[in-house]
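Running this now, will post back.
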Amino acid sequence: MKFNFITLFPNLVTPYFTDSILGRACQNGIIEINCINPRNYTKQKHNKVDEYMIGGGAGLLIYAQPLCDAIDSIGQTHVIYLTPAGKKFNQNDAKRLAKFNNITFICGRYEGIDERVVESRVNEVFCIGDFILTGGELAAMSICDAVSRNIPGVLGNANSLDIESFENGILEAPSFTKPNIFNGSSVPSAFLKGNHSIIIALKNHMALCKTRFFRPDLYQTLKSPKL
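Update: finished.
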C-alpha cells in the first residue's frame, strides 16, 4: 500500500513512520510513505501557494492549480480530503480503505483549499472530530495509522484486530497485568482460574458495561445487549 501526503510540511509527516509498528511496515515494504509538496508545482513566483478568498473573508486558501497538478502527478489513486464537512471517520472505513493499493491525503492549511479541488479531484471527505486543527497532517496521519493496522502483515499478531475496540460495535474489555493486587485493588478472580470459557464470557460482559458507561451512543445501537 502506498500512502501519498500532499502537504506544505513534509517534515511533520515522515518522522511518524520511522519507528514502532509502522516503521517496521515501511522497512518491510508493506506500506510506503510519499510526501509531495504543492510548492513544487506552483506557477507563481517565490513558490507561492496561497491566495485571498474571492468574495472576501478572513485568511487565505491554497489555490487550485498546484494541488491539482500535484494530485495528477501521482496517477491512479484514491484521494481523501480532511474537512469538518466530511463524514466522521470510523473503524469500518479503516478496514474498507485497507483494500486499496494507493491512497492520497490532501493536507489543508490556512483556511483550507479551493473548493474546486474537492469537486474535481477528491473521492472521499472525512472528519476525525468536531474540532479544528492547524493543518490536515495530524488528521491524515491518524487515518493512515488506522488504515495501516488493517493491512495484512503490519501487525505482529493479526488476531489482535479481532478484540480491539469498535469491533462488533463495542469497546474492548478492560485489561490487566501483574501484579494480581496493586494498591489494594485486585484483578477479577475469574481471570486467575484459567477457565477460558468463563473468562471470555466475563470479558464480553465487561466490554458491554464499559461501552454503556463510556459510550452510551454506541451501546444504544446494539441489538438487545445482555448485561
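The first helix runs from residue 10 to 13. More later if anyone needs it.
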